[in-house]
Amino acid sequence: MEIPPALLQFAGSLAAIVALAALAWWLKLGAPRRLESEADARREASDADDSFEPVEIALDHDGRAALLRDAAGRILLLRQHGAHFAGRVLTPAAHARIDGEALVVDTAEKRYGGVRLELDDPSLWVQHIESIKSH
Questions:
Q1: What total of structural domains would you count in the chain?
Q2: 3-state helix vs strand vs coil in the chain, percent to 5
Q3: Same domain (yes/no): 58, 26
Q4: Residues pairing with 70 in the sheet
């Protein structure tokens, strides 16, 4: 019985993909990171915008996101993006609302989207975000 070359090529490609996926899993590549402390949030904020120096930080309880405010009243939102964090300085177009115990922030950016954060004082951050509309 002769095996068609296309089937051999498919089987070889499939085996290579499975081997690479197993290697990535074994090396723990791509595992989601967490913001464990304010120092972590400061480091990620610096990576997102090296001129941003936070004076107030609120970490999501699960470490998936954070809000940071600088002395000028600018607010930087950090959220998980794959195995990294993406940050955006909120514009006056951003909106925030409380949903149960969580704060929901809509950045008004299609590509960045919205974020749900479990914070200790979400109402304070709603006020901060609404205050950027007047700057």
A1: 2
A2: 35, 30, 35
A3: no
A4: 54
Rounded CA gap, 95 and 121, in Å?
17
As to burial, measured by CB atoms within 10 angstroms (0-12 exposed, 13-18 middle, 19+ buried), residue 21 is exposed
Range of the domain at 85: 38-134
Q: Which two tokens stand for residue 83?
A: 């195995």
Q: Model-level pTM?
A: 0.76
Residues paired with residue 69 on neighbouring β-strands, in sequence order:
56, 75
Residue-level pLDDT, tens digit, the chain, 135 residues: 788 888 889 989 999 999 998 888 787 676 678 999 999 999 999 999 989 999 999 999 999 999 999 999 999 999 998 778 999 999 999 999 999 989 999 999 988 888 999 999 999 999 999 999 776
Residue 106's CB is within 10 A of a number of other CB atoms, namely 16
Residue 63: both structure tokens together: 């470490």
For residue 59, the cross-strand partners are 66
Question: What is the token pair recorded at 13?
Answer: 């490609």
